[in-house]
Fold this protein.
Amino acid sequence: GGSGSISGAGNYGQIQSIINQGTINIASGQTLTLGGIGWSNTGTITADGATVNLSGSFTTAGLGTFSAVGGTVNLTGTVDNTGNTLSLNSGLGSWYLRGGSIVGGTLTHSDTSKLVLTNSGGTLSGLTVAAGMVIDGTQLNSNYPQNSNSVSVVNGLVLNGSLLLGKADGSTSGTMYFNGMQTLGGTGVVTFGNSVNNGLIENGNGTVALTIGSGITVQGGSGSISGAGNYGQIQSIINQGTINIASGQTLTLGGIGWSNTGTITADGATVNLSGSFTTAGLGTFSAVGGTVNLTG
């Protein structure tokens, strides 16, 4: 049929769940919201061409037999993927992270499907992103702010795939925030678009640091790799990876006592050295033909 919700009421302090053992068919162009605490589907849900909002909380297995071919799936709740693999594919629709969370396990795909970031944010907790999988922070949003996408990381992120932050033409920006002592590990690639608002940002409270692992490559356009600079917080960056910024682009490095034991190459680019660092902490750094602004 048409649109509607199959969900717990969400009353404060109540644990209200849904167990679907039946058949749910939603027509193309309609909207279905699924919710409740620990909801599950052992029947079938077909919402091809529709919009599906996955709210509340559920497990990867609890999604069950689910089809959203040609549809849009908004993750607004929490999927517990611990010990499992969430494999996106065209049969599951196009997935958007709209304030929701993916907890644990591995995120992969079986075709060209990707996880799209939005201006509603969301959280990746202890997640491994498989080789070939794309987290896409380049898309334009339909609501304000249209050109800004973000996601937060807790409990570390193993990136073996690709993270795209901002569009190549600079019309959108993407930011990944790291909350607390975090490591961006794996063998993957982070690609900045051409907006200076792109960023890998340590955003935790207290004395915290983001460590960019030795297998990670940050490449492409403009952006910041820095602490957020929140008042009274000691937020640092430890780069052990490879940072390659193209000629004509702008990189801002910052944080309290940030350091580089990897390599930073920004030949022909503009580099803003902000925050605080030691001479030794600058490490292996090249900006041949570029401009270096000491702002820290």
